[in-house]
Structure formats: structure tokens, C-alpha cells
Amino acid sequence: MTSGRNIWLAGICAASVLAAGLRLGDIVPGWVFRTLCTLALGTIWLRLGQQVWHRLRQRQRPWFLFWNYALPVLVAIPTLASLSDDVVPVDQRFLAAAATGAVLACIYRLIYLKNKNMRKKIVAGNWKMNTLPAEGVELAENIRADRNQVCSCVNFIVCPPFTHLGGVIEALRGSDIEVGAQNCAAEDKGAYTGEVSAAMLAALGCRYVILGHSERRQYYGETSATLNKKMAQAFANGLQPIYCVGENLEEREADRHFDVVKTQIEEVIYNLTPAQFARTVIAYEPVWAIGTGKTATAEQAQEIHAYIRTILREKFGAAADETPILYGGSCKPSNAPELFAKEDVDGGLIGGAALKAADFLAIGKGFPQK
């Protein structure tokens, strides 16, 4: 994908040089040259804008659309007309707008290059099979009450049990705290006793769903084949999957952790379209360090997160640099700052600490201050 971007950029440059040469040689009329320049600048404008778009948080995107797209059209064309006593040809108006847009897109791109890690900062709470419905609503209300103590740049997600979803969603309505489910069915509907479909979750107001969690793989025998179906159901219903990968103690001690994680990614994530991948969050779980008495260091977390991003980059190119990768190995307020300081750790999938509002929010304070 990266090479593809280089090809289109080289093509635009070559076409621009050729058009300039033809114009200097009076081989083509001026309007043809201006049209070619407009197309070249417009392509650069759109492509650079697309790259920045995926880096922005949801609430930043309307402003970006205005400044990067609407403003050049609303300002450049009238300004050009005011500088001339004659009627400005249409091709010159479009060229002015495209040139202005390309300059603005380059500025946005430079900002992106200066701040390479503009990925979402996410703290997601997996409540697992804990709390009763009333307790879950109370927990959600407590999180909401003190949410303003944490930077708005941190995205909080809570994933309560199925029975709590309606109450928790209602308790968080109007806030920026998102709600996700802990699982969804592999089928859309039918005679599947005990299952909850992605459509049902979306209808309640869920935005996210955890898929491939180590406990689902271990206790319920979930395979890549099953997870491919669940991922398809999630995307079909507008849910964003938090896809979990990770190795157990035996695999870690056999030095197979890289192979295990690579397989889990290739067998599921590699089947996504670029648009689906752009909506995916990855969570790494060091299963070997959960409840075993062993501890995963921040350096070990960074090592495997960087490897995961490398594997993602092999398939999706530069888009992998925009994918949040969360750490799911006993993240607490005490170790969050050390973990989140690592370049490829973009947040945490929190277990036990997510059941206390103060601890959950304190983890959100662990991101480096810039």
C-alpha cells in the first residue's frame, strides 16, 4: 500500500512536468494546462486529506472538513474574482481552489508528521461477569461524574455484561463515554438459544464489541473461523471490534509468542477490507502473565506491540500506524504511566481495575502529557 502511494505521487509529478513542458512549447492551450494542474493539485488535496482524516477524533472531523475543503472553495474563488476587473474563467477559479486546498492539506500533513503518534488514546473497561444491573448503572454513573478530571483526548469505553447494556447506555447518554459488548453471535438471527446478535447490540446503542478475548478462546473454543463470522456481523451492524490476540504461558516459554500472535492476526485481520481495518482496535493480552504470578514488563509490552504493528503494516501499509493497539495485561493506575509511555501502546483493555470508577479514570491519567 505504501508503494502504491509512492506510485500515484510519482505519476502526478510526472504528469505535471509533462504538462508544463507542453505549455512552454505552446503545444497545448492555457486552459488545458490549467485543467491538468487543477487535477494534479486536487488529487494531492484529496489524498493528503484522507491520510489526515483517519488520524482525527470524531469531534475533530467536522472542523477538518470545513477548514480543509469548504474554506478553499468559499475564500479562494471570490478572492480571485475580486482581484480582477474581468470575468475570471471557470478553469482559473477551480485551479485557485485546488491550489489553496493543496497548501492547507500539506500544512495538515506537516502537523501529522511532527506528531507521528496521533492514534486514539483508549481506555476500555471489560467488566466480564461482574456486578448486578443496578451496580453496573451505579458504576457507570460514577465514571461519568468524574470523567472531566481526565483529558478529553482520552477515549473511555465500558463493556458491561449483556444484562446491563440498556441501563448503562441510558446512564451514559449525552456523555462521551462509549459502550461496548463483550461478545456477539456469529449469526445474524435464528434458532441460536442464548446468543445475542450484533444487530441487537447496535439497536441498544453499543458502539464497540470485544471479539477473540483469551477467555472466549480458552473456555468456549472460539476459532479463527468463528471470529471471522463475528467480525463480519460486527461490521455489518456498524460496531467497531476490539480484536484480542495473545499467547499463553506454554507458548511464551516455548518462544512461540510471535508466531501465535502473527497467526491470530493473519487468519482474521488480514481478511478485512481497508475500510473495515480502519475501524478496528487491536488488544494484546499476555495470557501468560494474567493470574500466573509472572509479570509482563513495559519493555515486553512494547516489543510485542511493535511486532503487531509490523505485521499489520505488511498487509495494510501506513494505515497500520493509525490503528490503536491496547495492552490487556493487568493494567493498573500504578503501571499505566510506564506502559502508556511506550510508542506502540495506545491504551489498555482493563479488567479488574475497571470495576472501580476511581481506578478506571486514574488509568486514563496515565498517558504522557504533551
TrEMBL record:
Pathway(s) annotated for this protein in UniProt: Carbohydrate biosynthesis; gluconeogenesis; Carbohydrate degradation; glycolysis; D-glyceraldehyde 3-phosphate from glycerone phosphate: step 1/1
Primary site of residence: cytoplasm
Presence of keyword Repeat: no
Keywords: Cytoplasm, Gluconeogenesis, Glycolysis, Isomerase, Membrane, Transmembrane, Transmembrane helix
Pfam family, one: TIM
The EC number(s) this enzyme carries: 5.3.1.1
Residues where substrate binds: 126-128, 291, 330, 351-352
Gene Ontology annotations of biological process type: gluconeogenesis; glyceraldehyde-3-phosphate biosynthetic process; glycerol catabolic process; glycolytic process
Gene Ontology annotations for the cellular component aspect, listed alphabetically: cytosol
Listed PANTHER family: TRIOSEPHOSPHATE ISOMERASE
Family label: Belongs to the triosephosphate isomerase family.
Subunit structure: Homodimer.
Function recorded in the entry: Involved in the gluconeogenesis. Catalyzes stereospecifically the conversion of dihydroxyacetone phosphate (DHAP) to D-glyceraldehyde-3-phosphate (G3P).
Name by which UniProt lists this protein: Triosephosphate isomerase
Species: Alistipes putredinis DSM 17216
